[in-house]
Amino acid sequence: MKKMTLKALFISAAVAMSANVQAEDVYSQCLADAETVIATAKKDGSTAAKAVEQKTTVEQCYAEVDKIEAKYGDKTVAVNPSSVMTPEDRLKWSKLMDAIDAKKYKGTRYLMAAYYR
Which residues does UniProt assign to the signal peptide (predicted)? Predict the structure, then answer.
């Protein structure tokens, strides 16, 4: 019986770690997509940046934002969520919001890259 319990424990730990890696992977891909769009806009202009194939959708990136905000529950109601976050979560949240702006071809970094190329 102990062997079965230990096997189940290790399997559940492996599944939890792979789920965490996959979630981090979506976060990283959102940031990578944004950097690719910005770099392309800087090099070749906005038309080329809009033609870049992105690995993640804006909805997937918003789902990652929701996961970060979910940690704080009702504290974020009627306030800017970053005002109640830890500095680490605030940094991840702000990078993700900037990435979403770039993926939608908006935001300061994208517009500056497209305009001042």
Answer: 1-23
